[in-house]
């Protein structure tokens, strides 16, 4: 799964589906089909999968699931991943005794179709263990591929490298930070990796290192004074380079730790703001809501006591009376049916018994004859008598038909859930009591000064570190240029010698190769920068309605974006609105995709939240539909209006709605999208 196959796979990838089994809010097995083959021609490029959900429905869990499947712990801070693991099992499933959850992500690239499966299991020590498997699909069957962790990471990084992933799977509101940090070393490295410059830089570094090793070995044998002087300077230059580069690692580590602290403090600050419901204003609003709800409950209970309670008290007696009346009705109906069936017989036997016979029949004989004859007549005429148990008719003889109907139709039930209302009343009264106790102690505003001060210190420290890193990078570049010049001078002097040994020949060849590689990198860098400049400029003009973004430059040395207004003044990107910074960042991402020639799937969360209607329309019509063969968009109900939903519908190949049930504490995935009135 490595080598050439992995590099080939960078050019194209499609997500097939993602499934959850009792993972976080997703109870049971939930599946999102992310790609379907076109079975008929359409004039539209149906490359969009639309996933809607209110806040808390599981969109963050969904987007993080891609990172978890691909990178696991590598993509998150230690604390973040511990939270993810500890909350990985759905709470409802956990209450039912379940101790396992699972994610499956299927994707296809030119090397085949694969399924990554991540399982979280709680062991006997109540710790969450994580297992990761990868399967290859063949003839609709899954075959597990045994890989060590290092092999798995290499397999993934050859497809979407970890430092490139945030350009293709991201929260659109956070990606706008790219505008303020696009000239940082991490961003530059990721951009160079996307446009394939990183491989060339690595080749240059490797050649440079081999050349230095050979130079150090040859320096011991060179006696020529000029060559010795140049060799000494070359070694000094190489030593200074190594020293500067050795300073990078601890400083980069410090930057990494500070950025983790920054992320943690931002999360803590957001959590404090999100979870804080104890300000006086919020408590008073909640108290007002609860008091109105309590008043409605009391009114409902009072109305119930006045209108329905007497009926409920008399209900047992009425039910017994209804049963008795129905029994009497059944008895009389049966007797009436029997009388109707045997009316011909009664007429016949009465005539027979009135005939005079000698000797005459007594009364008892006539009754026996009548009863026996009835059985014979019923058998001959196939008449079946309804057998009924004799009862005393106590009520029907005394009640009118209307009175009988009124008794039988009396409603003994109530549509008021008295038990539920009483329970709700107790719950509300308890909550009111707690809120009243909290009211005096509640702050007027949320205090985030501690986090703000720490964030300010971290930003200041990071600024100093970034400035020092920029200075050091400039020094490294100058030393590398000087090192290159010294190499050329030494080579020219050695060429004057009549004979060159094998080592000298190798060094001459290496010097030429290093020079050619550097020239190639310089030329490719300029070419890529020009391509990026052209693409970003074109895309910005499509997306923006303002004229103050007039001209774009992309610095090939710093690999940094610069934008100029119509008066050719450089625009301060960090001062732009949040929506504009988001559009600029999205433009950079699209341009990088086009220049690299890669066709990665995109997963974008909340891309329209901070945009006005015109910019939204531009993004829908001109961006998402052309960005990639597969664009998965996660939205809330406020981002896409009815008009936008209709506008984007022809480009949507699949849509889903994440619906969270507060009672069940779980999310259900259903096909479709938000409905608009």
From TrEMBL:
InterPro entries: DNA_S_DndD, P-loop_NTPase, Rad50/SbcC_AAA. SUPFAM superfamilies: P-loop containing nucleoside triphosphate hydrolases. Pfam families: AAA_23. Residues 18-242 form the Rad50/SbcC-type AAA domain. It comes from the Bacteria. Belongs to the SMC family. SbcC subfamily. Heterodimer of SbcC and SbcD. This is Nuclease SbcCD subunit C. It comes from Paenibacillus puldeungensis.
């Amino acid at each position: 799964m490595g080598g050439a196959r992995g590099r080939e796979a960078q050019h194209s990838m499609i997500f097939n589906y993602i499934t959850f089994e009792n993972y976080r809010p997703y109870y049971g097995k939930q599946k999102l089909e992310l790609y379907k083959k076109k079975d008929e021609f359409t004039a539209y490029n149906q490359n969009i999968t639309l996933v809607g959900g209110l806040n808390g429905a599981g969109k963050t869990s969904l987007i993080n699931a891609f990172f978890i499947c691909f990178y696991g712990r590598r993509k998150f801070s230690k604390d973040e991943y511990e939270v993810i693991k500890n909350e990985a099992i759905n709470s409802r499933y956990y209450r039912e005794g379940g101790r396992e959850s699972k994610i499956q992500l299927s994707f296809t690239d030119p090397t085949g179709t694969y399924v990554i499966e991540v399982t979280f299991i709680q062991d006997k020590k109540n710790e969450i263990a994580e297992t990761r498997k990868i399967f290859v699909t063949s003839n609709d069957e899954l075959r597990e591929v045994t890989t060590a962790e290092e092999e798995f990471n290499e397999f993934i990084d050859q497809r979407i490298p970890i430092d490139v992933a945030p350009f293709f799977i991201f929260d659109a509101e956070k990606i706008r930070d790219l505008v303020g940090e696009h000239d940082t070393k991490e961003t530059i490295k990721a951009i160079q990796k996307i446009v394939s410059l990183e491989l060339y830089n690595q080749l240059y570094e490797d050649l440079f290192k081999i050349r230095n090793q050979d130079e150090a070995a040859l320096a011991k044998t060179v006696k020529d004074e000029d060559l010795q002087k140049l060799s000494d300077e070359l070694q000094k230059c190489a030593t200074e380079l190594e020293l500067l580069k050795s300073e990078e690692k601890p400083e980069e580590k410090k930057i990494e730790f500070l950025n983790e602290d920054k992320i943690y403090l931002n999360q803590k600050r957001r959590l404090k703001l999100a979870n804080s419901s104890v300000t006086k204003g919020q408590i008073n609003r909640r108290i007002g809501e609860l008091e109105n709800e309590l008043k409605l409950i009391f009114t409902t209970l009072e109305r119930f006591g006045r209108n329905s309670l007497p009926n409920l008290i008399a209900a047992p007696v009425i039910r017994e009376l209804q049963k008795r009346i129905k029994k009497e009705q059944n008895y009389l109906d049966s007797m009436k049916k029997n009388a109707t069936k045997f009316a011909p017989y009664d007429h016949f036997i009465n005539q027979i018994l009135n005939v005079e016979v000698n000797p005459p029949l007594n009364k008892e004989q006539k009754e026996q004859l009548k009863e026996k004859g009835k059985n014979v007549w019923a058998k001959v005429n196939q008449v079946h008598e309804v057998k009924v148990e004799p009862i005393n008719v106590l009520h029907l003889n005394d009640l009118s038909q209307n009175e009988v109907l009124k008794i039988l139709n009396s409603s003994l039930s109530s549509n008021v859930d008295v038990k539920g209302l009483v329970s709700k009343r107790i719950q509300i009264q308890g909550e009111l009591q707690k809120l009243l106790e909290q009211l005096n102690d509640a702050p007027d505003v949320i205090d985030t000064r501690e986090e703000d001060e720490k964030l300010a210190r971290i930003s200041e420290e990071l600024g100093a570190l970034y400035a020092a890193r920029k200075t050091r990078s400039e020094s490294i570049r100058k030393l590398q240029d000087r090192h290159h010049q010294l190499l050329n001078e030494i080579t020219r002097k050695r060429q004057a010698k009549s004979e060159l040994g094998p080592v000298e020949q190798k060094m001459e060849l290496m010097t030429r190769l290093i020079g050619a590689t550097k020239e190639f990198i310089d030329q490719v860098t300029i070419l890529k920068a020009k391509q990026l400049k052209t693409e970003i400029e074109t895309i910005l003009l499509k997306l923006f309605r303002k004229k103050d973004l007039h001209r774009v430059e992309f610095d090939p040395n710093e690999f940094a974006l610069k934008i100029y207004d119509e008066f050719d003044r450089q625009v301060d990107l960090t001062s732009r609105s949040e929506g504009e910074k988001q559009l600029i960042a999205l433009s950079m991402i699209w341009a990088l995709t086009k220049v690299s020639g890669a066709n990665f799937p995109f997963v974008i969360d909340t891309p329209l939240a901070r945009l006005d209607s015109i910019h939204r329309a531009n993004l829908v019509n001109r961006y998402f539909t052309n960005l990639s063969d597969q664009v998965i968009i996660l939205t809330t109900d406020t981002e896409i209006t009815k008009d936008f939903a209709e506008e984007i519908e022809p480009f949507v190949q699949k849509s889903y709605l994440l619906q969270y049930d507060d009672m069940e504490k779980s999310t259900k995935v259903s096909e479709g999208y938000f409905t608009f009135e």
